[in-house]
Design goal:
Distance between the termini: 20 Å
Strand order of the largest sheet: 2-7-1-8-9
Oligomer: single chain
Bound molecules: adenosine-5'-diphosphate, guanosine-5'-monophosphate
Shape: globular
Structural class: alpha/beta
Number of strands: 9
CATH topology of one domain: Rossmann fold
């Protein structure tokens, strides 16, 4: 079957689980993709660039964007606003790309609701809570207070793993990346309900 329209791959998991690291490993191997750069009101971290990791804005600007229906979904995570811009996602889908979101459990629920039939969702988990704590501390991008908040949040997020299609436990990075590659390739060939009838109809080429 020749897929003309794109598909969505949602990645969620506690901050520090390894979503960015895994994505970096696989992004060159999974065909034409568009990584959705979210907008956030949180402080920029050392090593991050505006427009690459996030669009960093203040709360006032974010609220204006909400009013103008700029977001496909948005949520408050760890006390900051995060949102996915609708327009570039629509364009990437039209171009037949795999659109990748790194969003939280609330965002996944919204995407599932709005675009569930073209979405594949993956929850990325660290092997244990203590390993997560170790990774967040080693990353050296957050204060102890922020890390403690993220740990508490992680416990709550883990309760919602069953809302996802797949769970990847990111223990060995290379092994986890291989699983993500397979899932990303499969996500592309997920058949949206409205295309099934067209396909079956076209397939019956002998009457
Ligand atoms: P996220 O994007 O989910 O917040 P990161 O990709 O930033 O997480 O990873 C958090 C930290 O853990 C980083 O310092 C990263 O290098 C490290 N890390 C990621 N995956 C692994 C792994 N499998 N084993 C050990 N360290 C890892
Ligand atoms: P961080 O501050 O560590 O970059 O991200 C914190 C959390 O916000 C992560 O769980 C991440 O997946 C989530 N997040 C990032 N962008 C978005 C977004 O656009 N929408 C939603 N709902 N969550 C997001």
């Amino acid at each position: 079957m020749n897929h003309k329209s794109g598909a969505i791959l949602v990645l969620s998991g506690p901050s520090g689980a390894g979503k960015s690291s895994l994505l970096k490993e696989v992004i060159g191997d999974i065909g034409a993709c568009y990584f959705s750069v979210s907008t956030t009101t949180r402080q920029i971290r050392a090593g991050e660039e505006d427009g690459i990791h996030y669009h960093f804005v203040d709360v006032e600007e974010f609220k204006k964007d909400i009013e103008q229906d700029f977001f496909l979904e948005y949520a408050v995570v760890h006390g900051n606003y995060y949102g996915t811009s609708l327009r570039p996602v629509k364009e990437a889908l039209k171009d037949g790309k795999l659109v990748i979101f790194d969003i939280d459990v609330q965002g996944n629920a919204t995407i599932l609701n709005r675009l569930g039939d073209i979405t594949t969702s993956v929850f990325i988990s660290p092997p244990t809570l203590s390993e997560l704590k170790k990774r967040l501390e080693a990353r050296q991008t957050d204060s102890q207070e922020v890390i403690d908040r993220r740990i508490e949040m992680a416990k709550r997020e883990m309760q919602r793993v069953s809302e996802y299609d797949f769970l990847i436990v990111n223990d060995n990075l290379q092994e986890a990346a291989e699983v993500l590659r397979v899932i990303a390739k499969a996500a592309r060939v997920k058949i949206p309900a409205n295309e099934i009838n067209d396909f079956v109809h076209g397939w019956e080429d002998i009457h």
